[in-house]
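Quick log. Single chain, no ligands specified.
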Amino acid sequence: NHPHSVCRYFTGLAQLRAGNLQRAAFHFEEADFDRRWPSKGLNEAPHAIVLYRLGDLNRAAEKLRSSDDELDRWLQRLLDGDPLNGPWFDLLELLYFNELAHQEINGSVPDRRDSLNGIRTASLSLFEQ
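-> predicted structure:
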């Protein structure tokens, strides 16, 4: 009962972990086509890793920028007090894979402490109400 893109995404992750980069790329590309998945942006960072390992540096950089844009949108939604479109753990997954991709492709991870601390403060204030 899961959307086709979710199944393709998880298959792509499994193929990436197994080192089957061509298969992983295929599944991540297939996952891009289904617009029904509210957390579609999860696909971008692991896809960037695969493309980077395959030597497609331009497309890898493009996917990583797309992942950054998606993550920034999600963080801004939370800072604005708006709910996410998907489950909360998708944000953790997006953060995790975005950082992995940055570490592998750029050798460093963006500093998002201000945004994350803002979300933490806003979340804690909900308990005080």
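The longest helix spans residues 57-79.
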